[in-house]
Design a protein that fits this description.
mainly alpha
Length: about 375
């Protein structure tokens, strides 16, 4: 989903920064979910506290405001907007279930021909169909298949969030959302139950909602400033310095054969509860991108446009990427992690994702193409009446 940075009667210009950033995040998520892939040495998680998941959720909030918040604001029928949100949640759920079925079926078949390490098997495989209802009801979230359920929960809460923003204002909403996040950081036991993990959902919705809400509020602010966040040299410098600290603190120095240059001895910030270090990291990155004219220029280059192509079709790319992850892990586990297999897995994976993105883009363009008119000025395929 792109961003229209002009409104009213002014022609819409498309801002590809959000699309491109989301496309980069999706590719990094795909790479990170294949532990044996050498490319995951170069993803966000090696150069900062946060990783692509934080970017994905923040942009989910941003895009939700563009898709549904502005629809509410244009006085579209509330039932119509709610129906759109419901359809999107159902779509997310269907894609989630499809991924679960494909992953479980693939592993069950694969292990009849090649050995699969025990730690690769998800716990639900050992319980068979007896636990299927838990997966269907989102009470059991397999590893690497846990971010779409989070998105469903957050999106289901968008309409109440919009009502609160209109009723009590942004500062109060941010305060309430931040208070819940702080409470979870104080007591991580506050979480949704997960039958496969006694600690609960890997992405605790009570903590991650704060990032989603910040994305929503960021979209509202950008909408008042021609699609960009207000530029402050002081704030940009602070964000840049924080990202430098995050890089030095998070980079795997010893894995690369360097001396450990980390200035502070600290544990890896907890991802489940969205620890403050991670939250500040993704917010600093987002501010620099969404307030920078240079980011706009980069998003307009051929590379930026390619990333934006992936980002515009995030659900399909995420789903395809999850299946690429599955088969990539299985192939590298069964046939080795040498350079030939690395090239094959990453090359084939990228081609698959590019094919999916281009097909979805062609479908999107075709759907927006004007329909030839029949005599009388109506589209040739228009119904004579509407219910």
């Amino acid at each position: 989903m792109g961003i229209s940075i002009s409104q009213g009667t002014v022609p819409h210009r498309r801002d590809h920064r959000i699309d491109a950033l989301r496309g980069v995040a999706l590719l990094m998520m795909c790479i990170d979910h294949i532990p044996q892939d050498v490319l995951n040495r170069f993803t966000m998680r090696n150069v900062g506290f946060a990783d692509a998941a934080e970017v994905f959720v923040l942009l989910a909030g941003y895009a939700s405001w563009l898709a549904y918040g502005r629809a509410f604001g244009r006085k579209q029928p509330v039932t119509s907007v709610l129906a759109r949100i419901g359809r999107r949640c159902w779509q997310l759920y269907v894609f989630q279930m499809a991924m679960v079925v494909v992953c479980i079926s693939t592993i069950r078949i694969w292990r009849h021909f090649w050995p699969v390490p025990v730690d690769f098997l998800e716990p639900e495989l050992a319980h068979g169909l007896d636990s299927a209802w838990r997966v269907l009801s989102l009470q059991a979230l397999p590893g690497n298949l846990n971010i779409l359920p989070l998105y469903i929960v957050l999106l289901l809460g968008f309409a109440p969030l919009y009502a609160l923003l209109r009723g009590v204002g942004t500062p109060v909403v941010l305060g309430l959302s931040g208070a819940v996040w702080l409470l979870v950081n104080y007591d991580p036991r506050l979480n949704f139950p997960n039958w496969l993990d006694p600690d609960g959902w890997y992405f605790d919705p009570l903590a991650w909602q704060f990032l989603f809400v910040l994305g929503v509020c960021g979209a509202r602010v950008a909408g008042r400033h021609d699609g960009s966040l207000p530029r402050s040299r002081v704030l940009a410098a602070v964000c840049g310095l924080y990202l430098v600290f995050s890089f030095v603190q998070s980079f795997p120095w010893t894995d690369w054969g360097f001396a450990d240059l980390r200035p502070v001895g600290m544990a890896v910030p907890d991802k489940m509860i969205l620890a403050p270090w991670r939250l500040l990291d993704v917010l600093a990155l987002f501010y620099l991108v969404q307030s920078s004219p240079l980011a706009t220029v980069l998003a307009g280059t051929r590379g930026g446009q390619l990333m934006a192509l992936f980002g515009r079709h995030s659900l399909e790319i995420f789903t395809a990427g999850t299946l690429v992850d599955l088969y990539g892990r299985l192939v590298l586990t069964s046939f080795g992690t040498g350079w030939v297999m690395q090239v094959v897995v990453n090359g084939v994976g990228f081609v698959v994702l590019l094919w999916v993105a281009r097909n979805r883009e062609r479908a999107r363009v075709a759907a927006r193409r004007p329909t030839p008119s029949a005599p009388g000025g109506l589209p040739a395929n228009a119904p004579l009446c509407r219910n």
